[in-house]
Write a structure and sequence with these properties.
The protein is mainly alpha-helical and 234 residues long. It has three domains: 1-56; 75-121, no CATH class; 122-234, Alpha Horseshoe (Serine Threonine Protein Phosphatase 5, Tetratricopeptide repeat), CATH 1.25.40.10. Helix content is 76%, strand content 3%. The protein contains eleven helices and two strands. It has helices spanning 2-38, 41-54, 58-70, 74-81, 91-103, 107-120, 124-136, 140-153, 173-188, 194-207, 212-233, and strands at residues 159-162, 169-172. A two-stranded antiparallel ribbon has the order 1-2. The protein is elongated and about 85 Å long. The N and C termini lie far apart (108 Å).
Length: 234
């Protein structure tokens, strides 16, 4: 009789727990929708975190990491999904790892994920990011290959954002690729290639005269060239 009573109590407690969990999931799903309507990002994060604890889901975890990365909370994004490349990682998972690792100056690790994205769906945007990372890693030959792919496939309406000024701005992706090519060429040989690098900066500015990074890069290169010419005269 005691055993029967114990089994009834245990079964009842499991039923209550399951019911409570279901109710909690419904509550946080409704809370999530409300936070989305209000545009409350932290509220959305809180709701998704509770849902992930109550009913774990890879898709939800990837989305949560994406929201963190979108808010510039890159370390939290990586803590959510890790940094290693997995064979079954979704596109959004790989993208978040790439973006977050690059933002945290982990160029070599970020490149692994950008290369995976490029394998899945090559495009000029990814080509630029890969070339930028390879330039940082001094793989100039690899960077040039990526830039050439970008220049071959870029469309006139494609843009890229830059953040070196107080106010972020956008420029033509083609202009950005030409500017990056100029920097790559210069770094390959800082003496012999300076004129070619300046020409590429001028090509970028011909597309977008307000492209700040190309402007300051050209000024720096011209200053370097003038200094070299002055030294040669002396």
């Amino acid at each position: 009789m005691k055993k029967l009573i114990l089994l009834v109590v245990v079964a009842t407690s499991f039923g209550i727990t399951a019911q409570t969990k279901t109710e909690l999931v419904k509550h946080f799903e409704a809370y999530y929708q409300q936070m989305k309507r209000q545009g409350d990002v932290q509220g959305v994060i809180n709701a998704m975190t509770h849902l992930e604890v109550l009913a774990p889901s890879l898709a939800r975890k990837d989305t949560l990491a994406y929201i963190y990365a979108s808010e510039g909370r890159n370390l939290e994004a990586l803590n959510t999904i890790g940094i290693e490349l997995g064979p079954n990682d979704s596109d959004i998972n790989v993208e978040v790892k790439a973006i977050a690792l690059k933002a945290l100056n982990q160029s070599e690790k970020a490149l692994v994920h950008y290369e995976e994205l490029f394998k899945r769906k090559p495009n000029p945007y990814l080509a630029y990011e890969m070339a930028d990372l390879k330039t940082q890693l001094k793989d100039y030959a690899g960077a040039k290959q990526n830039v050439e792919y970008g220049l071959t496939n870029v469309k006139a309406d494609m843009k890229r954002a830059f953040y070196e000024t107080q106010t972020p701005y956008q420029t033509s992706l083609k202009a950005a690729l030409l500017c990056l090519k100029g920097l790559i060429v210069f770094n390959e040989n800082q003496t012999a290639n300076i004129d070619q690098a300046i020409k590429l900066m001028n090509d970028a500015l011909a597309i977008d005269p307000n492209f700040n990074l190309a402007k300051i890069s050209r000024e720096a290169l011209e200053g370097r060239r003038n200094q070299a010419n002055q030294g040669a005269k002396n």
